[in-house]
Amino acid sequence: MTVRIGVIGTGMIGRDHTRRIQQVLAGAEVVALSDYNPEAARAVQADLAPGAKVYERGEDLVAAGDVDAVLICSTGSTHEQYVLAAIAAGKPCFCEKPLATTAEGALRIVDAEVAHGSRLVQVGFMRRYDAGYRMLKQAVDSEIGAPLMVHAAHRNPSVPEQYVTPMAIHDTLIHEIDVFRWLLDDDYISAQVVFPRKSGHAHDKVADPQIVLLETAKGVRIDVEIFVNCRYGYDIQCQVVGEEGLANLPDPMAVTLRREARLQSGIMTDWKDRFIDSYDVELHDFIIAAAKGTAAGPTSWDGYVAAISSDACVEAQQKSGQIVPISLPDRPALYDRG
Amino acid sequence: MTVRIGVIGTGMIGRDHTRRIQQVLAGAEVVALSDYNPEAARAVQADLAPGAKVYERGEDLVAAGDVDAVLICSTGSTHEQYVLAAIAAGKPCFCEKPLATTAEGALRIVDAEVAHGSRLVQVGFMRRYDAGYRMLKQAVDSEIGAPLMVHAAHRNPSVPEQYVTPMAIHDTLIHEIDVFRWLLDDDYISAQVVFPRKSGHAHDKVADPQIVLLETAKGVRIDVEIFVNCRYGYDIQCQVVGEEGLANLPDPMAVTLRREARLQSGIMTDWKDRFIDSYDVELHDFIIAAAKGTAAGPTSWDGYVAAISSDACVEAQQKSGQIVPISLPDRPALYDRG
Amino acid sequence: MTVRIGVIGTGMIGRDHTRRIQQVLAGAEVVALSDYNPEAARAVQADLAPGAKVYERGEDLVAAGDVDAVLICSTGSTHEQYVLAAIAAGKPCFCEKPLATTAEGALRIVDAEVAHGSRLVQVGFMRRYDAGYRMLKQAVDSEIGAPLMVHAAHRNPSVPEQYVTPMAIHDTLIHEIDVFRWLLDDDYISAQVVFPRKSGHAHDKVADPQIVLLETAKGVRIDVEIFVNCRYGYDIQCQVVGEEGLANLPDPMAVTLRREARLQSGIMTDWKDRFIDSYDVELHDFIIAAAKGTAAGPTSWDGYVAAISSDACVEAQQKSGQIVPISLPDRPALYDRG
Amino acid sequence: MTVRIGVIGTGMIGRDHTRRIQQVLAGAEVVALSDYNPEAARAVQADLAPGAKVYERGEDLVAAGDVDAVLICSTGSTHEQYVLAAIAAGKPCFCEKPLATTAEGALRIVDAEVAHGSRLVQVGFMRRYDAGYRMLKQAVDSEIGAPLMVHAAHRNPSVPEQYVTPMAIHDTLIHEIDVFRWLLDDDYISAQVVFPRKSGHAHDKVADPQIVLLETAKGVRIDVEIFVNCRYGYDIQCQVVGEEGLANLPDPMAVTLRREARLQSGIMTDWKDRFIDSYDVELHDFIIAAAKGTAAGPTSWDGYVAAISSDACVEAQQKSGQIVPISLPDRPALYDRG
Ligand SMILES: [Mg+2]
Ligand SMILES: [Mg+2]
Ligand SMILES: [Mg+2]
Ligand SMILES: [Mg+2]
């Protein structure tokens, strides 16, 4: 059975997911497209999905009888409404992060899905599908004993002028916030942010670097360096220290050269290259679950917890050096981990 | 357009390629299956391709009107006949290695394809599609100057009793024979084999390890250690030394652990894991070309040259220590490299 | 000219330094020995320095006419008195850490040396002489731009029952406290200690692991994991993040093995092996300076600042999570850095 | 007891050894110097050993009553006569390589030492004292089972015009020739040399790179790449493949940097830096043995075997591609390995 997919939002990521479904992955085809700018939707139709129908309104796409499942790739502020529409229609939907722009909005989605009674929503936290993180999780689960600490870094070569301090949480740390919960099977109970000496390469409106210190319910201490003007590359580091040993996230595979008095290997500079393969895997997971009328991978609850946790981190930025508590409501049984 | 594929030979690799087309890759579906054991074909039909038709004879599958392209995964001695049938039918075909069991047979295929006038055959040398070798080729082409030497190793933990000395060439070195030609854009002019002290873990009928020394038309010297009872893992190493520097084939990505007084990372032990991703990529390449009625990737000529070169290496085994010349006829224009 | 050295304290380290001077290093000989247990001194005399004279009192050794310079290797609580005696006698002295057991005691030494008017004291912070840290300092000074952060770890496989929480500062972190000041050419202005989930391998009286967060006058943020029951090895890690790039302390040289499905190299388990070479280098530096009647390397001031900074870290342990300020008096001109 | 040493030949290496004895190592002092250019000897006397006596003739230095042991650092063609003089005088001597310029000359030294009845000669093959090779030997002896193959490389960035093809053996490979015998506890039985495509950076009189293939009595196969215009650095590689696994010579310790889109660490470019520490260790070994009136480390026999083996490799260069046998007389009992 081929899953018939409607894509809402045909910007960079919506176009790329359409290409993925049409040209790379088995099991699905794009039959509907929608964008607030209909020309954009029609351009994707022309280039990648000539058989797809273009809808003016996302809600109409969700409701269409030949649409089995929905991809939400529109601007963040519209995510909540389309996810709620998909849940109302009982259709599986994949929603790019953030699930909603507020924790309250995310909670409304959780409530709707719980009311529906089975999973319909997958949130686009693609790192859980990265081969490196999967290897790391396997090592954490089987090789190093109980995790005690995580040392991590999220570095970008540079950021544009519109990147301001809170975006270090909402746009950058958000990936670590989700993936560490999954990696450790744990939740956060406090956050603290400290600001080292600012890099001379950081522009006026961003404090850079930052160090975020998180504490989990099980007592794990996490330090994450966020450094978005590090110059040298896009570099994601993660080391988990357990009772019996340590495990490191592998660096991306690279040729080792001996050249010009240097033993050297390339470091990526464009974030788009780093987790490119995991987008294929997450959508493949979505297609398989959608064919059964349900959803897999990161849940609405994960999206909600990410929102709560990010809000605390932003507060911790504002209260530089102070420890900000994080508390969560009880997790609905729908989201019990396997 | 979906490419309708017929699969001849539904053993381990035929079944796996069928799964790949049905469940992983966009753009193709398996519509026909054939095996000398019809039960095997029907089992794959039941598990993976319920819509496919089962043929008793491979030739009938090739001839079927709804089969656009053919995958030849049957036993090696039957490859030649099915490839010739596909060429006669003007249908793209993917043929697992070897293209034929003799150089003469491979040359008959080359001649038939040349007579046809355009490419129809892709040979299953999957290493050319491996991400690591592709990175290495890019480095060889742009970072290290003219290649002068290659130091390589092909190691297996162990081999069964039926693995005898010439299989070190036909089953093991064959991958290096193809991939180094592609990596260096070069051909072999001589081979020499020397036999180190035999490992105590090697059984009676196999000389192990062996070192194969190849010389290319451009003067590159290649040494390949073949060690099929190395115990510690399945390990493929390749270092290219050029006028300006060196490049190494990357090891597969692995978590680095610090545990039990060892900095350590896992080495694969099963060859099936090592190039698993490249099978997807080679078939994706086949599907794209087949949709246009042609073939891409390793050619019939490559299959023929691999046969000639392997024969020389086996002769060099028999004449331990002696240098055996390798000569090729002129390459037909059809196989000019881009 | 051969420097004639008297050694006070002939326990493990005093015996080893005597061996070093007698059997390894040019330029000095041990002419006098003293220990609160005269038998111990006589045993070292018999084994390593038959020509040396044994003194009952360290003060008499310091005063002896044929003693040019003094090594103080006795128990920590006696360091201050012997250093002050050496300064009073105008003789160069090498003092194992700690310089004194209190910051006040260390300040008395600083005052005495300043009153003397030239350097006479070298403190035994041997890491500054380690080849790896020296390479790192060179990289920090020339390759990575202004330092912004340091991520470090100090791990021991296990500690005995008598190792209690404050010893994580006084006996373990003390090395980082000194070497980071030297590495960064900077001083601390605050300390914070957080306690992750305790390792099941840690005994009752030690909170383990701990994370110490230090802030420097220049704004560098340092995080040091102290984990003295890490099981897997004695492991010292240090990464400096600068405006232009990162530099890592090299791991000790080790053979890389491929064995038993693991790419592996050994990690040391005994701290005594880790900086063994640096003891030779620090004493060589002492001998060269002592031949000129002065001292080189880590100063009394460094010993004093280490004491002040450690005290703050112990207070930060006691005030778990709180930030404790660190302030220093002005540095006497005698200790201006080159 | 201090060993009183006479140094014959005060060029670069003789001066450096004099510095080592005077300023670095315990247990010895330079009391005599000689050079065919007496001004050179007097300059070293003035700079490093004011108490030493300068002799016009090396033989007189050897004979001097206050000289306990001799260092022979003069030009290679004079080594044999001075070593024979030292043996005649019954004095330990350290001789820089080569022991003699012909195998016959080396054999005369062996015969003289055997006639003397105990060891007096240490040959300056310093790699046996390198920490990396020592680690590798330990791994070879205990971790990888019986050695079967060695893959090695000896690379220099460039060589001067006077470096001609045979020097690749006598000046470059000579170190591998000795150190592999020690590493494997084995001897060579044949040599073959093949010439890859020549590097465009090699001048007219040197074939570069070369690959030397050696076979040992135990059946180990060794391939050594010699590449003296490799451009990128001075790089010594050695991998030993055994029945149970592999071991690699460690690269020199270096800081790992992340900078300019490269994970990188420095490679040495000057050969003088690579084994600098091993010179200290070999002379320390000489001093300790000389204090007992004997010699340790590489023997006269090792020097003789190196000469025989090099001669065969040069013949193998001249007979490009042909296998040249190597045979040795029986080893005198004086040189039985511990
Ligand atoms: Mg699809
Ligand atoms: Mg398909
Ligand atoms: Mg000494
Ligand atoms: Mg000396």
Automatic annotation (TrEMBL), chains A, B, C, D:
Question: Start and end of every Gfo/Idh/MocA-like oxidoreductase N-terminal domain?
Answer: 3-125
Q: What is the lineage of its organism?
A: Bacteria, Pseudomonadati, Pseudomonadota, Alphaproteobacteria, Rhodobacterales
Instruction: Describe its assembly.
Output: Homotetramer.
Q: What is its EC number?
A: 1.1.1.18
- Extract the GO molecular function terms from the UniProt entry: inositol 2-dehydrogenase (NAD+) activity; nucleotide binding
The UniProt entry's coiled-coil ranges are: none
Which transformation does this protein catalyse, written as a reaction?
A: myo-inositol + NAD(+) = scyllo-inosose + NADH + H(+)
Its name, as the record gives it, is Inositol 2-dehydrogenase
Could you tell me what this protein does? Involved in the oxidation of myo-inositol (MI) to 2-keto-myo-inositol (2KMI or 2-inosose).
Sequence ranges assigned to domain Gfo/Idh/MocA-like oxidoreductase C-terminal in this UniProt record: 137-321
Keywords, sorted A to Z: NAD, Oxidoreductase
What Pfam families does the database record attribute to this sequence? GFO_IDH_MocA, GFO_IDH_MocA_C
Q: Which domain of life is it from?
A: Bacteria
Signal peptide span: none
The record's listing under SUPFAM superfamilies reads: Glyceraldehyde-3-phosphate dehydrogenase-like, C-terminal domain (SSF55347), NAD(P)-binding Rossmann-fold domains (SSF51735)
Protein source organism: Paracoccus onubensis
Example GO biological process: inositol catabolic process
Annotated InterPro entries? Gfo-Idh-MocA_inositol_DH (IPR050424), Gfo/Idh/MocA-like_OxRdtase_C (IPR004104), Gfo/Idh/MocA-like_OxRdtase_N (IPR000683), MI/DCI_dehydrogenase (IPR023794), NAD(P)-bd_dom_sf (IPR036291)
Which family, according to the similarity comment? Belongs to the Gfo/Idh/MocA family.
